[in-house]
Amino acid sequence: MSTNFFRQLTELSLTGDIQITIRQASDNRLAVSVLLQNEQCGDNAKKQLIPLTLNGTVEELDEGFFEQITKPLQSASSLMVNMEAYLKQLEEAKKRSAMEKEKADKEQKVKEEKDKKYQEAMQKVEALEKAGKYREAWMKVPNPADYPDHTDILQNRRKELADKFSTPDLFEGDRK
Question: The pTM is what?
Answer without folding.
Answer: 0.51
